[in-house]
């Protein structure tokens, strides 16, 4: 008979192995992803698939992203322990929870109130005190807390949203998937310098659309 505890441990080892084999090599990112159990962020019948390298459905018709994509985006963000980070697209809260282990302060915005409520409760249960989830249209950013050292968008925009570019510090980095929602999109790394912005295309990705400019949550 399979020892269920050992089975879970094996699944978690496979999880980290899959991250490494897909190019997540930053030790801080790997350690954070090993520590932040994805099982907390997947509910119902999908719980038993929490350690597969695949996106999974969550409430409100949304998804928790594929772990290796979360790892690669986090790695590209180059988060330091003194950074203030904004995430747009809280979803399950998984990406924000990983960022909370790497950054000084994390704010995450989600347009579905139900997802925000569930995430707030989970952050409290996990005792994550440096991350705040709030409801709203994240395409406007969070002017009250700007500027940010790092911004990560986990839904696909047609272009990097202007308000988010404006809220990025000089020297700051933004990671954002760009492209049409029904096509393969490109993950873009935007770096703000003294004169403007540098854009680097990282890899093809597939995300749900960033609903922009609605000005209100669902
Ligand atoms: N980062 C999430 C995680 O770790 O589970 C996955 C995010 S999911 C792929 C994209 C999320 O972006 C969805 O929950 C969606 O509701 C949200 N979203 C789309 N447009 C938005 C907007 N304008 N403002 C805030 N959230 C938005």
TrEMBL record:
Which reactions fall under this protein's catalytic activity?
[protein]-L-isoaspartate + S-adenosyl-L-methionine = [protein]-L-isoaspartate alpha-methyl ester + S-adenosyl-L-homocysteine
What is this protein identified as?
Protein-L-isoaspartate O-methyltransferase
Active-site residues? 65
Task: Identify the stretch annotated as signal peptide in this record.
Answer: none
Organism encoding this protein: Lentibacter algarum
Q: Which PANTHER family match?
A: PROTEIN-L-ISOASPARTATE O-METHYLTRANSFERASE, PROTEIN-L-ISOASPARTATE(D-ASPARTATE) O-METHYLTRANSFERASE
Q: Kindly list the places in or outside the cell where this protein is found, as annotated in its UniProt entry.
A: Cytoplasm
Enumerate the Pfam families for this protein.
Answer: PCMT
Which InterPro entries does the protein's record reference? PCMT, SAM-dependent_MTases_sf
Biological process GO annotation list? methylation; protein repair
Keywords for this entry?
Cytoplasm, Methyltransferase, S-adenosyl-L-methionine, Transferase
Q: What does this protein do?
A: Catalyzes the methyl esterification of L-isoaspartyl residues in peptides and proteins that result from spontaneous decomposition of normal L-aspartyl and L-asparaginyl residues. It plays a role in the repair and/or degradation of damaged proteins.
Q: Does the keyword RNA-binding apply?
A: no
| Coiled coil feature spans | none
């Amino acid at each position: 008979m399979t020892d269920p505890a050992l089975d879970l441990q094996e699944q978690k080892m496979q999880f980290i192995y899959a991250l490494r084999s897909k190019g997540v090599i930053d030790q801080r990112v790997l350690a954070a992803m090993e520590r932040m159990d994805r099982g907390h962020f997947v509910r119902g019948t999908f719980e038993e698939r929490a350690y597969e390298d695949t996106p999974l459905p969550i409430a409100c018709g949304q998804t928790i992203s594929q772990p290796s994509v979360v790892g690669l985006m986090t790695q590209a963000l180059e988060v330091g322990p003194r950074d203030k980070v904004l995430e747009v697209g809280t979803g399950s809260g998984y990406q924000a929870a990983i960022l909370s282990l790497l950054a000084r302060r994390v704010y995450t915005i989600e347009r579905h109130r139900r997802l925000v409520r569930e995430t707030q409760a989970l952050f409290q249960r996990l005792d994550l005190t440096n991350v705040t989830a709030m409801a709203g249209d994240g395409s406007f950013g969070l002017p009250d807390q700007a500027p940010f050292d790092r911004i990560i968008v986990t839904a696909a925009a047609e272009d990097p949203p202007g308000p988010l570019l404006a809220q990025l510090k000089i020297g700051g980095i933004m990671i954002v998937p760009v492209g049409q929602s029904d096509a393969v999109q490109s993950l873009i790394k935007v770096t703000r310098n003294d004169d403007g912005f540098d854009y680097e295309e990282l890899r093809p990705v597939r995300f749900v659309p960033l609903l922009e400019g609605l000005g209100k949550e669902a």
